[in-house]
Amino acid sequence: MEFTAQQIAAMLNGTVEGDAQAKVTTVAKIEEGHSGALSFLANPLYTSHIYECGSSVVLVNNDFVPERAVKPTLVRVANAYEAFAGLLAQYDKIKRQRVGIDGVHHIGKNSTYGEGIYLGAFAAIGNNVKIGANVQLHAHVSIGDNCVVGDNTVVYAGVKVYEGCVIGNNCILHAGVVIGSDGFGFSPNAENNYQKVPQIGNVVIEDHVEIGANTSIDRATMGSTIIRKGVKLDNLVQIAHNVEVGENTVIAGQTGVAGSTKIGKNCMIGGQVGIVGHLTIANGVKIAAQSGIGHSISVEGSVVQGSPAFDIGEYRRSYVVFRALPKLTKRLDDVEKNSAK
């Protein structure tokens, strides 16, 4: 797509300094700028690059004062970083937008979809499915019977949504996500074999949720596994049956949450964290990467680290002592030797 400096300024409520008709068709870092590219300058550490920059247009803050002549057309805005991020979001949305039905596909009985749908090759929709407007179901996506997918949701290639699950509006499910596979429910019998406990619940994903590639969210044994509004899950996250993740909580990659644990809203959970089942994590809790959570955290806003995890300040002080243990041991040995003489 092609935009002029004047059009960009109009979108960002900015002002043009230079050629208002300068055209851009792509974006580039300021140190790698070239003709036809749009760049931005927000961090003063990169100011020197603007004088050699080959980009056609550069976004700058209103208070930027060049020390010498610059070649690109400048578009002055209140916050160059935020403005550039906003443009990238619009560009990405336009680039990813798809409409229409490709190749071989399957739509089951009594299933409906809204206007603006995109259905990729070999996508399959089960019976009694309700799909909203402007939904994208990419190649090899499978939506099981009796599911609901809300408006403006994007489901990338290879995602599998089992029967009866609900996905809200404006969600993004990346490639390989599995929603609604059976929870890990088994019961030992008299012969000491494990008998499967039927998992008859579902998964409910509310609005504005993004789920990273190859993440798995298990269906509830009974009731629902619930991912609340605004949650962001990274790649390779495991959410077990009957878990509830509160609004706007973010969970980094390779984290596992065991069954029936309730995580509050606005929590931040680092990568490779393990959380055992049947716990409660309070609102606003931060858990450092590779921590192990074996007990509930009841104090809102707590920051914890370690395995088992405890207060991060105490953890860091303890770690200083731990690192010093070899020296302390040697000193103790020397004291004992000298005492024995």
Q: Residue ranges: pLDDT <50 for 5 or more in a row?
A: none
* CATH class term of the largest domain: Mainly Beta
Distance between the termini: 86 Å
Global shape: flat
Q: How many strand segments? A: 40
Reported for the largest beta sheet, the result is: 12 strands, mixed
The strand order across the widest sheet is: 8-11-14-17-20-25-28-31-34-37-39-40
Outline the structure in words.
- A hairpin with a 2-residue loop joins β39 (303-306) and β40 (309-311).
- This protein folds into two domains: 3-96, Udp-n-acetylmuramoylalanyl-d-glutamate--2,6- Diaminopimelate Ligase, Chain: A, domain 1; 100-313, UDP N-Acetylglucosamine Acyltransferase, domain 1 (3 Solenoid).
- It is of the alpha/beta class.
- It starts with a strand and ends with a helix.
- 16% of the residues lie in helices and 30% in strands.
- The protein has three helices and 40 strands.
- The longest helix is centred in the last third of the chain and has 29 residues, at 312-340.
Topology overview:
Layout lengths: L2 E2 H8 L2 E3 L5 E2 L1 E2 L9 E5 L15 E5 L11 E5 L2 H17 L3 E2 L4 E2 L4 E2 L4 E2 L4 E2 L4 E2 L4 E2 L4 E2 L4 E2 L4 E2 L4 E2 L4 E2 L4 E2 L4 E4 L4 E3 L5 E3 L5 E4 L4 E2 L4 E3 L5 E4 L4 E2 L4 E2 L4 E2 L4 E2 L4 E2 L4 E2 L4 E2 L4 E2 L4 E2 L4 E2 L4 E2 L9 E4 L2 E3 H29 L1
Parallel strand pairs: 4-5, 5-6, 6-7, 8-11, 9-12, 10-13, 11-14, 12-15, 13-16, 14-17, 15-18, 16-19, 17-20, 18-21, 19-24, 20-25, 21-26, 24-27, 25-28, 26-29, 27-30, 28-31, 29-32, 30-33, 31-34, 32-35, 33-36, 34-37, 35-38, 37-39
Antiparallel strand pairs: 1-3, 2-7, 22-23, 39-40
